Amino acid sequence: MSSGQGQDRVLDLCLRAGDLMLKHGAETSRVEETIVRVGRASGAKLVHSFVTPTGIFISVGTFGAEKTGLIRIRSTSAINLYKVHEVNDLSRRFERGQLTIDEMFDRLDAIDQAPPHYRIRYQHLAAAMSSGAFTILFGGGWTEFLIGSVCGWLSNTTMEAMHESVPRFLRVFIAALVGVLVAAFSVKSGFSGNLEAAVIGAVIPLVPGLSLTNSIRDLMAGELLSGVARASEATLTAFAIAVAVALVLSFVAVGVEVAP
Amino acid sequence: MTIPYTWEQIPHLLLLLLMSWIATFGYAILYHVPKRASLWVGLIGMGAWITQDISMRWGVSAVGAAFLGGLVVSVLSELFARKLRMPVIVFVVGGIVPLVPGSSAFRTMREFVTGHQLQGLAQGTNTFLIASAISAGLVIAGTIMRLDRRKRYEKPSGDRFGTPDGR
Fold it and tell me: Which of A62, A4, A53, A5 is nearest to A25 (CA)?
């Protein structure tokens, strides 16, 4: 930690670990905590981190000689909690002195380039099964299970298929529109009688569970900025889904009023 | 306090329990929850759902039931997170999904679309309250569970004016 170059490497390491965690969906309080842990473990006397959902600012060094760095996070669509767990685990092992700085860089690269934790076909299967199971929880039968599975799979696939340059809320809106449209048509054509269950199943893969959880945990930790930012993300996503449902109901399914 | 199910309802209850497990498990896979944790995440969702169901059958309001469900999710998640040494969000993300006020939200939209503004507002308020109750449950249980951890992680970092402990 005495040379300026060593200081640069510590700064790089902290930024890299933080970037990886935040990009894959960690809450900001945990990212700050990890950055401080990594910086301290690599011998920096002074570590300050300020993390928001869209950027990381840190300064690392000794008293009087500190380096500051920042990273802008542009997309958090590649949510992968497995990688969050791995980086978190790595930082704890680094803190216990089980890894050197060079090893840390190698491991972080490995985590970054690792293939998806679940194969893509299992992801599709999971989306379908989850949506189907929800239709039954919300009072549907096996017909709704089938419709819900197909529509949930469809909305999840639509969401994944769209390019990241499309704004997130628009993607959610279009995906929900596709899923709910198919669900409503299948009810209208008399295939099933429970519109409510089918529609809920269709939008389940789009529900903003992570934004909601992160916002609550950030607010709990006193991170007001990120907490409020994430809460509004969750609200806007929920609104995108609601508007899609309302649109389909008003155009397609007005005639299929089910009993209240 | 009696068991709020009759014998005839038990098979259907078991089916619903299985479904809440599958639903949570599937949703967790969409977020790439670590494989070692995924089975337990399903269990948390199941616990949340049965808590909500039993309390509603005991006459608790939908909002109160969502609050209790949130409490259960938070407590179980903190316990599993410590046992498996993983971040708590891994467990909470899946666990809260069975509590999502889906039918209430759907009815809100249906009322608005069919021109019943007032009923729509009432349902919308209900949806909002349920969502807030889930958050409240998570926050309260989470804060209590983390009381002993706080101290360890708030070691102050040395501050730039040279005072060693930042004070």
Answer: A53
What digits encode the pLDDT tens for the residues B28-58?
999 999 999 999 999 999 999 999 999 999 9
Q: What DSSP state is assigned to residue A60?
A: E
Distance CA B61, CA B79 (A): 27
Residue A190 DSSP code: T
Report the alpha-carbon distance of residue A147 to residue A106 in Å, rounded.
Answer: 46
Single pTM value for the model: 0.87
Whether the per-residue pLDDT at A98 is higher than 80: the answer is yes
Instruction: Please give the Cα distance from A85 to B89 (Å, whole number).
Output: 10
Rounded distance between C-alpha atoms, residue B20 and residue B100, angstroms? 12
Q: Do A212 and B96 touch (CB under 8 A)?
A: yes
User: Is it the case that residue A166 has pLDDT exceeding 70?
Assistant: yes
Our CA angle for A178, A183, A184, nearest 5°, is: 100
CB contacts under 8 A, B 70-99 vs A, are 85-90, 92-94, 96-98
Phi, psi dihedral angles at A72 (to 5 degrees): -100, 130
**Token pair 């009322």 in the structure block, residue:** B111
Q: Average of pLDDT values for A166-182? A: 91
Closest CA to A69 of A6, A9, A26: A9
Dihedral sign for Cα atoms in the order B37, B40, B42, B48: negative
Q: Which of B93, B38, B146 is nearest to A24 (CA)?
A: B93
**Residue B163 contacts A where some CB pair is shorter than 8 Å:** no
Q: Where do the structural domains in chain A lie, given as residue ranges?
A: 4-113, 120-256
Distance CA B108, CA A215 (A): 24
Distance (Å, whole) CA A248 – CA A25: 31
Q: pLDDT means per 10 residues in chain B (167 residues)?
A: 79 91 93 91 94 91 94 94 90 91 89 89 93 92 78 51 44
Find residues 222-241 of chain A whose CB sits inside 8 Å of chain B.
238
pLDDT of residue B166: 41
